[in-house]
Amino acid sequence: MDPIKYIFEKPALTGRIARWQMLLSEYDIEYRTQKAIKGSIIADHLAHQPIEDYQSIKFDFPDEEIMYLKMKDCEEPLPEEGPDPESRWGLIFDGAVNTYGNGIGAVIITPKGTHIPFSARLLFDCTNNIAEYEACIMGIEEAIDLRIKVLDIYGDSALVINQIKGEWETRHQGLVPYKDYARRLLTFFNKVELHHIPREENQMADALATLSSMFEVSRWNDMPRVNIRRLERPAHVFAIEEVVDNKPWFHDIKQFLQSQEYPLGASNKDKKTLRRLSGNFFLNEGILYKRNFDMVLLRCVDKLEAEMLMNEVHEGSFGTHSNGHAMAKKMLRAGYYWMTMESDCCKHVRVCHKCQIYADKIHVPPTLLNVLSSPWPFSMWGIDMIGMIEPKASNGHRFILVAIDYFTKWVEAVSYVNVTRQVVVKFIKNQLICRYGIPSRIITDNGSN
Fold first, then answer.
1. DSSP H or E stretch at residue 88
2. 27-31, 112-116, 196-200, 410-414 — which is least confidently predicted?
3. Backbone region of residue 285 per phi and psi (left: phi > 0; alpha: psi in -120 to 50; beta: other values)
4. Which of 132, 206, 337, 429 has the fewest CB atoms within 10 Å, i.e. the most exposed one?
5. What is the pLDDT of residue 306?
6. Which residues have a Cβ under 8 Å from the Cβ of 224 and sit 6 or more positions away?
7. Which CATH superfamily is domain 380-444 in?
8. Residue 6 in 3-state DSSP?
């Protein structure tokens, strides 16, 4: 068997060989079978290139008791090594069945939080439950190859989790072999715990399963590596560069009021906007003021002065750590103005350390929440028997079977000659279930009647 052909054409790879194939896949290697070479050509080639210090090959093997030799990979643990038997690993699985195909995905989580993903495309028709079983079994097999002994299995399929745990009955005949095989695989671990999680907490395995079901795979490990980045701002924001000219925000307005000059390169629209803005400002002895709606003049301040004002008003000598809107109104009343004062005040409050520690928790209810259960009549019944009654009734009845609802105090009572198991079952069926539905609880005193 050619080892290179074995790596690239084996249908299922695990362990060290799978890691080799992952490393070789980036070089775009294509395997081709070596054609036959005539022995005479090799002999002629060796005859024309003799070796001076040639020695005959010794075919005697010194250690015949050794069956085979194996080169150990630097990342492969010895059978007696492996992970720590007490370390707890995690496994998350999910399956996807859609119009494009069927896929499964599993993620093994190391004790340090590293995620090891596995995915596969199913080339046969199956239901969603079968896909979930396939994903679970694939993840368990990979965990066995890694010699994991303590494993926590998480899945969003309540059917698969509860059937493997033995809490639910497996009625579908196609799922019985999957359940039996999965339970046999669990015997390879020292401790296994199965947990059901909501779909929102199983996003990574669900994404792997969906991707493998929609991606056409021609051979093993054919899918390229996918890197996901986090972009916190839109793409056009990165193309904008801030020009630092050390000029205040009102420089163009002040220049226009002084000398009626427009900025260099201003368009007709920019000139019209500048003229409209300048009508609300007033220049006096080199200081720019803004006319407020009540005709009060507000002094325009630059960025440095605005920072000093916010610090003094918010946390200065007479600062009350008020919110951003109150800060802006207070500075307006004091006679100061800049274009973005309200938004800047709100940002300043968000970065204030004391405000974040001592502020009220607005998203928390003022009092502790009390769980209230909705009323459910006829959900819990108490059953007891009265008798033996002496003298007996005219029809020979000497026992009365009584059932009382705990919520409405409704009473159901029927008399009998003798109270046996068949009589009690008939009473519960006819008087309780057929009239009021299946109850959640039935309480008795377990009398030896």
1. strand 88-98
2. 27-31
3. left
4. 429
5. 92
6. none
7. Ribonuclease H-like superfamily/Ribonuclease H (3.30.420.10)
8. helix
Examine the pLDDT at 445 and tell me if it is beyond 90: no
| 3-state SS, residue 183 | helix
Cβ-contact 381, 438 below 8 angstroms: no
Instruction: Please provide the size of the chain in residues.
Output: 449
* Domain ranges, ordered by start, for the chain: 3-32, 88-214, 250-358, 380-444
At residue 81, the pLDDT reads: 55
The answer for residues whose C-beta is within 8 angstroms of residue 210's C-beta and 6 or more apart is 96, 98, 103, 105
Structure tokens at 247: 């000029």
**Phi, psi (rounded to 5 degrees) for 88:** -100, 120
Q: For residue 273, is pLDDT > 80?
A: yes
For 116, the 3-state DSSP assignment is strand
Q: Report DSSP state, residue 428.
A: I
What was the pLDDT predicted at 35? 67
Distance CA 11, CA 105 (A): 17
Q: With beta carbons less than 8 A apart as the criterion, state whether 213 and 103 touch.
A: yes
| CATH fold match for the domains 88-214 and 380-444 | yes
Distance of CA 31 to the CA centre of its chain: 39
The answer to whether 379 and 400 have CB atoms below 8 angstroms apart is no
Write out the DSSP string of 43-79: HHHHHTS--TT--PPP---S-TT-----PPPTTPPPT
CA 203 to each of CA 23, 95, 198: distance values in angstroms, whole numbers, following the listed order: 27, 12, 10
Q: What is the CATH code for 250-358?
A: 1.10.340.70
What's the chain's average pLDDT? Answer: 81
Q: What is the pTM of this model?
A: 0.40
On whether the CB atoms of residues 435 and 407 are closer than 8 A, the answer is no
Which ranges of 247-286 does DSSP label H, i.e. alpha helix? 251-259, 268-278
pLDDT tens track for 223-271: 566 666 676 777 666 655 666 677 888 888 888 888 888 888 888 999 9
Q: What is the CATH number of domain 88-214?
A: 3.30.420.10
Cα–Cα dist 189/72, whole Å: 25
